[in-house]
Specification:
- The chain is an alpha+beta fold.
- It is built from 5 helices and 5 strands.
- 28% of the residues are buried.
Length: 204
């Protein structure tokens, strides 16, 4: 018997089909990318708020023991709140390597980068530090009357070495641009919670 062979099926896609698939993928990526960026931004905000909460507790503990706020420091010297609270954020070994009052420019390599709890992820993106230079403070202490205080994101243009205990008044901070969509997270002294400030006003 003579059976005819079945015709072979040609599998493949046309150029038009390929272009349609690529267009669909492009649309999906365009929809997905902003969502990914938003998730990353929220994650950075969460880390920053947690840092501020922990730093606020550390300064409050310092005040509870010493009955005063950490003393301010000179911008080019080691000292101030960011050094004095190191034992309260499980960084006593780092604190033991610091000689308060010594010059920042003589800092060893281990002191150039601040502890992770003192790093704001949104501010880290903006840091552009030359080799051998100390990283700037990502957070500032804002003292107020009657031994009260707040801890805030440092303004974007603020450039003081992290180990110099950066301080600003709250009204000075309000006039500047912050690292979080132009605003600042801050924790208000002995009060619970972290708030967000934009254009000098609290935002819920």
């Amino acid at each position: 018997m003579n059976f005819a062979k079945p015709a072979k099926r040609v599998l493949g896609v046309t150029v038009i089909e390929l272009m349609i698939v690529l267009a669909i993928i492009g649309v999906l990526m365009a929809l997905l990318f902003p969502a990914i960026q938003s998730v990353r931004e929220r994650a950075r905000d969460t880390v920053c708020k947690n840092n501020l909460h922990q730093l606020n507790l550390a300064v409050a503990s310092y005040v509870g023991i010493h009955k005063r706020l950490p003393r301010p420091s000179t911008p080019d010297l080691f000292g101030g709140w960011s050094v004095e609270i190191l034992p309260f954020i499980e960084q006593k070994n780092l604190a033991d390597t610091i000689v308060p009052g010594s010059r920042i420019e003589s800092a060893s390599d281990v002191l150039l980068r601040q502890p992770r709890i003192m790093r704001c992820p949104s501010r880290e993106i903006l840091d552009n530090i030359a080799d051998g230079k100390m990283y700037p403070s990502h957070y500032v202490l804002a003292p107020s009357r009657r031994e009260s205080f707040s801890i805030s994101d440092a303004p974007v243009k603020f450039n003081v070495a992290w180990a110099s205990g950066a301080q600003l008044r709250l009204n000075e901070i309000k006039r500047e641009k912050g690292p979080h969509r132009g605003g600042f997270f801050y924790s208000g002294g002995f009060q619970d919670g972290v708030r967000f400030m934009l254009n000098g006003e609290d935002v819920n």
